[in-house]
Predict the structure of Tetratricopeptide domain protein.
Amino acid sequence: MTIRIIAIMLFFFSTTIFASEQNKPQEQPAKTNATSTQYPPLIERYILDELKSIRQDQQSFRAEVEHKVANARLDVSDRAIRYTTDTLNNVFIIITTAASLLVLMGWRSLRDVRSKLNEVVETKITELTSKYELRLKDLEDKLKRRSQEIIDAQEDISKANEIHSIWMRAALETNMHQKIKMYDELLAINPTDIEALIYKADAAFELGDYEWAFSLANRAIEQDEEYGLAYWQRACANAANGALQEAISDIKIAVEKAPKLAEEIDREPAFEPLHDLEEFKELLS
């Protein structure tokens, strides 16, 4: 299943690169945030079919696991009962042999023999019962823990597949309002998904809602103060809102956290209001 996902991703990226090489314009302003890409319907259909196949495989695998766990429980119970029965039979054989020896050795009366036998049998049975109850309880606890681990793993896989599917749809979507809805779905699944926050802030910026983009960038910085792209996104919002000095400060922090962003400073359209500032020119040198 993992190999199939990797194959889909390789096919997806190789097709994306080929399409971009064929349709790349002569001049195109660079932007660090993700942009939407149009794909041929055949590729979209291939990806959706593969995702559907993966979900079906997930359901089959879960049913198979539950069947195996049920069989394992029955097998353990059967072995424990069989082992207990065999042990009790051996105890009774030993007791019978011992009683015969005691009678031959001249115990005072059959009443004494019976009393001793009952005492020994009760003691042995109590010890064995306690011992095997503990073993059975331990086995049951282990099976419960293992079953829960399998269920948790299945839920994690299902959650990861759902997140991956939403990211794929968001990459194909061209409408910014729809993109924001998809990013909200990602944040509903994982409220701490900083990538979803940044992409949502970028979509809000594209819609011209700079205050919202600024707020989302601040939320991302609160979650991870070392994430350079969050400062970059806030710098874009500050530049659009006219807070030029704050934008310069955020650019410096972003470059410090992620040095590769320095190559994109002069190509970022959102920084056009900063081009006449000496501090901005120093960043380019």
User: Anything to note?
Assistant: DSSP finds nine helices and no strands in the chain. Residues 21-37 have pLDDT under 50 and may be disordered. The two ends are 49 Å apart (CA to CA). Residues 2-14+37-172 form one domain.
